[in-house]
Specification:
Chain lengths: 403, 602
């Protein structure tokens, strides 16, 4: 029996100390599973995140920035977390974290933008006009629906670009509103300017840019009131830390019962690109990210929605195995992916790539195709045929299946 | 020098224009637009792309010129005006240079040598490193606030310069050679780079590229300063090829590594480029199929010899100024034009702006304005002579996705549709409201720490007499230490200093030095404009605003709705009789029009 089913069968049972607010849970109108993808942009150094401290090669290749075993947050007799990852250590101890080792793809690109586009589309080297989450949304609903995808961001991610749906993209929920000046009573009711809304005739607009603007404008008018209300009604006592990557906004949307199943947020601006003076900076970045993820899971438990939410953490690449001369690391290849949630089988998955048999200029040889993780999430969490989205079949991992 | 250049451009141009006199049908039509085709509409198109739009009187003047003369005016500028140089607040002092990479690096340095950032460690007492930490945060805040002042200075140049293409091209290069003050952490370097973009942006690409590559802002941003012989750092070499010159896919990983070796030793001292010879790898390299003991400039010259480099730059400029959509086959044509012109950017733009292609129907009114273009062109069309302080230029452009001197990544800003999301459609409309009806709840973020508001709570708790440890615990968090975020647990763990106190004191110290931004609101007189234009009916008012502010026509039904709405507001259709109360209804109307999707096109 996996944790998700266990929870399903024991809702309301007292004595689950790790889910203190469960008994107070109010049944949500929506029960569909939710995926929250978190991007650590810039190329997170997986090797200094999940450290194989029992492997001597690690300390040989990273004589200066290798983290001494006694500073690590130990997971077991082989791995330890970067000391900034206290939040994820807490999840690990509760069995709420899965680590997938060695994720990557054939002939890796060392360009941030190219490699990120491969991860966003799920189609390395060939690319795709639409993102993998966008195509996933198209499979979940082949007809256009509101609020299928939410991307909290300053600019839309390629990952959520869909051929059917217009993703809801916002940054600050309080500003997700068209301010008006002394609306008439009728305008107040509809929440719209009659003159600023687009007529359906515009759909056949010849100027492509103009037609695009009209479509986005219409979508914005539909979604904004719901998002604002969700944020206004949300408050939390949970400590998300200093920079929680917009996860409180996602929690607010989930709490408000939005029908959205797919969310995408990121630690923005290439922050994890740690070429120089990495140790203190990387530890700080990881503490922000992991505090945010830990706070998010605890917050979902508080509002009684944790069991239907799965978090997936990825980055465009890992970093070069040997450190550089500037207390940093350069662009690399294979990396860890993380899945967090109360409905998964916590533990290690995949195989740690060898640190002694490096390839392609001191890089890790990937052992898991990152699309295996995508496929796992689609098949075993969202109940979607992954091949429809990825156009290829990938072996899934037993992270979400009963054991 | 200037004269020689323009003569050579003219010769080259005439050669080129002959070469393109009979274009094959598949190619872009770069033949010059004939004088007879010139119109007010084309002049407005030129002004909106080569500048930030033109007012009616400016259009009157442009319309009287030939297309060739009009384009010349944008390429060369009127040059009758000397724009004021940036007015430094005086926040920098010598102790701040070199600025350590992080707060931990600063406190480590202070522990080792007994001082850092020009501040000594206290010999004893409470928190001996606190003054050093305060100074660290002071510079982070002061440099950021001063950068906002540089951005304001630049925005005012965009608005008022008689050579707006110089500023528009600087904006292009800023997005192309993107560096961000958040990482550079020194407004002086950002300002220095911006001045380079302004001075050389319309000149030779080689000079510009070398100037940028040897500029402290870029060297700091891409970590070139630590690129040494024994361990070449690839960041700089990779981005030069991938983003600045060739584009991905035209070089190998080996080329990246070899180029990195050529750039070893490149560094800066203060605001000067400096080559550390001891760290330079002078050995033989193999780069893009050539062998030699190349240095950084030689690597750049090999890159410039690649046809793909000219194609990449020429196409990017075309997409920015003409149309996002460009057929791959046409990229080669544009690349050969730029190469023939010896990478002279001003001459290349002269070809583009003067061509039949530029005025093709598909290229007019089809481009989504970038946030900075939206703000500056709105202000220009409103007839403003200085950028308002309310709303804040940086906050608004940042909320819209384009904060000057803070591009999101080294790849700069994506253009076109990426400027638009559902939320950003609203932000664009709200900007219009903020200009037309200034927000009386406005808070100036160069005085109030809006992005780190928690330090105001810290300050208030200290004033109430709390201890440092108690005052710096985060506000509004419940639960014990086992559920507290690691980042919050760490704030007061080190007994030598407290980072939240440092952050608060740093802000106080920055306030003392950084000059405030003037918070004047837009000086508007829409009623005066409308009456002067002799609009007598609401529909004429709507038509007048469309002509003044819009690059594309607005549908008749929408105009009728707007006119009806204005009539309701005025209580009459006789506009002339409403002069004493006309202003507010006009502002409401214009805000409705600024909210239209059509207003986003330029």
């Amino acid at each position: 029996m996996n944790r998700r089913r266990f929870l399903n069968s024991t809702i309301g049972v007292a004595g689950l100390s790790w889910l203190p607010h469960l008994s107070a849970r109010v049944e949500s109108a929506h029960e569909a599973p939710i995926l929250v993808a978190i991007e650590l942009s810039g190329g997170n150094d997986g090797l200094n995140s999940v450290v194989p401290y029992a492997d001597d090669a690690y300390y040989r290749l990273r004589p200066t920035i290798g983290i001494p075993a006694n500073q690590l947050l130990k997971l077991d007799d082989h791995y330890g977390f970067n000391p900034g990852m206290l939040g994820l250590q807490r999840l690990w101890q509760e069995g709420q974290l899965a680590i997938v080792h060695g994720c990557g793809y054939e002939r890796p690109s060392y360009s941030h933008f190219t490699s990120m586009a491969y991860w966003h589309t799920g189609v390395p080297h060939r690319g795709d006009e639409f993102g993998w989450m966008g195509r996933l949304a198209d499979v979940l609903s082949p007809t256009r629906k509101d609020d299928m995808l939410i991307n909290v961001a300053a600019t839309q991610s390629l990952a959520v670009k869909s051929s059917v749906h217009t993703p809801v993209v916002f940054d600050d929920p309080e500003r997700f509103q068209r301010h008006r000046w002394m609306a008439s009573a009728a305008q107040e009711l509809t929440g719209q300017h009659s003159t600023a809304s687009s007529s359906p005739a515009d759909a056949v607009e010849a100027n492509a840019a103009r037609a695009f603007l009209n479509a986005v404008d219409q979508s914005a008018q539909v979604s904004s009131a719901r998002i604002r209300r969700a944020w206004k009604e949300y408050a939390t006592p949970v400590d998300y830390g200093i920079a929680p990557m917009d996860l409180p906004k996602v929690a607010a949307c989930i709490k408000a019962g939005l029908p959205t199943q797919l969310y995408h947020v990121s630690f923005r601006n290439n922050s994890f690109d740690t070429h120089v003076q990495q140790p203190a900076l990387h530890r700080r970045l990881l503490s922000y990210a992991c505090d945010g993820i830990h706070g998010f899971i605890r917050d979902l438990e508080r509002i009684g929605e944790a069991r239907r939410v799965l978090v997936m953490v990825y980055s465009e690449f890992g970093r070069r195995v040997p450190e550089n001369a500037n207390l940093g690391t350069d662009h690399g290849s294979a990396n860890v992916m993380l899945l967090a949630g109360v409905g998964l089988n916590g533990g290690h998955y995949g195989r740690q790539p060898s640190l002694t048999e490096l390839v392609d200029g001191d890089n890790l040889a990937h052992t898991t195709d990152f699309r295996q993780v995508y496929a796992t999430v689609m098949q075993d969490w969202l109940n979607v045929d992954a091949q429809q989205v990825l156009h290829e079949e990938f072996e899934t991992l037993p992270i979400l299946r009963s054991v | 020098m200037e004269a020689i250049r323009s003569v050579s451009i003219t010769i080259l141009l005439s050669l080129l224009l002959t070469a393109f006199a009979t274009p094959a049908s598949a190619e872009l039509d770069l033949t010059p637009l004939p004088d007879t085709a010139w119109s007010r509409g084309f002049a407005a198109h030129l002004a909106s792309r080569a500048g930030f739009g033109a007012t009616s009187s400016e259009l009157d003047a442009l319309e009287r010129l030939s297309p060739r003369q009009a384009v010349q005016r944008f390429i060369r500028g009127l040059d009758t005006q000397t724009l004021a140089a940036f007015d430094h607040s005086g926040v920098f002092d010598e102790g701040l240079d070199p600025f350590p990479a992080s707060r931990p690096a600063t406190t480590e340095l202070a522990k080792q040598q007994g001082h850092a950032l020009g501040v000594d460690v206290k010999p004893g007492g409470n928190r001996p490193l606190q003054p050093v930490v305060n100074k660290f945060f002071y510079w982070l805040r002061a440099s950021r606030l001063e950068t906002d002042r540089v951005a304001y200075w630049w925005a005012n140049r965009m608005l008022t310069s008689t050579h707006p293409l110089q500023e528009k091209m600087a904006l292009f290069w800023h997005g192309h050679f993107a560096t961000n003050e958040d990482k550079v952490r020194d407004y002086r370097k950002m300002h220095q780079q911006l001045v380079l973009f302004q001075a050389y942006g319309l000149g030779g690409f080689r000079e510009l590229l070398i100037g940028v590559a040897q500029g402290p802002a870029m060297l700091a941003f891409l970590d070139a300063g630590v690129n040494t012989k024994d361990s070449p750092n690839e960041n700089f070499a990779r981005e030069i090829m991938e983003l600045f010159t060739m584009g991905v896919g035209h070089y190998t990983e080996r080329d990246v590594q070899e180029a990195a070796r050529a750039f070893t030793g490149w560094n800066f001292v203060g605001l000067e480029f400096h080559i550390n010879e001891a760290q330079h790898d002078a050995q033989a390299k193999s780069f893009l199929g050539q062998e030699g003991n190349f240095d950084g400039v030689e690597v750049i010259d090999i890159i410039l010899e690649q046809p793909v480099t000219a194609e990449y730059i020429a196409s990017k400029i075309y997409r920015y100024f003409v149309n996002e959509i460009l057929d791959p086959a046409d990229q080669a044509q544009l690349g050969s034009v730029l190469r023939e012109l010896d990478y002279d950017v001003g001459a290349y733009l002269q070809v583009l702006f003067g061509s039949e292609d530029f005025y093709r129907r598909a290229n007019v009114g089809s481009r989504i304005k970038s946030p900075v273009e939206l703000l500056v062109s709105t202000y220009r069309h409103l007839g403003l002579t200085r950028v308002p302080g309310v709303p804040d230029f940086n906050v608004v452009s940042g909320a819209l996705g384009q904060r000057l001197l803070h591009p999101p990544t080294v790849a700069g800003w994506s253009q076109g549709r990426s400027w638009i999301t559902p939320s950003l459609m609203f932000e664009r409309s709200n900007f219009g409201l903020d200009v037309l009806f200034p927000d009386i709840g406005f808070v100036p973020l160069d005085r109030y720490p809006g992005y780190t508001a928690e330090i105001v709570n810290v300050q208030n708790r200290l004033r109430q007499g709390m201890s440092v440890s108690a005052a710096t615990r985060p506000t509004g968090i419940s639960g014990g230490e086992d559920e507290m975020a690691a980042s919050n647990l760490l704030a007061d763990r080190d007994e030598d200093f407290n980072t939240r106190i440092g952050s608060m004191r740093g802000w106080q110290m920055a306030l003392e030095r950084v000059k405030p931004i003037s918070r004047h609101v837009a000086d508007l007189d829409l009623a005066g404009l409308v009456l002067e234009a002799e609009c007598t009916t609401p529909m004429q008012v709507v038509e007048y605003f469309v002509a003044e502010f819009f690059a594309v026509e607005v549908t008749g039904s929408r105009k009728a709705e707007l006119a009806a709405s204005l009539t309701t507001e005025l209580g009459t259709a006789d506009v002339a009789s409403t002069s004493t109360f006309l202003e507010e209804p006009l502002r409401k109307l214009l805000h409705q029009m600024f909210s239209l999707p059509e207003y986003q096109l330029g």
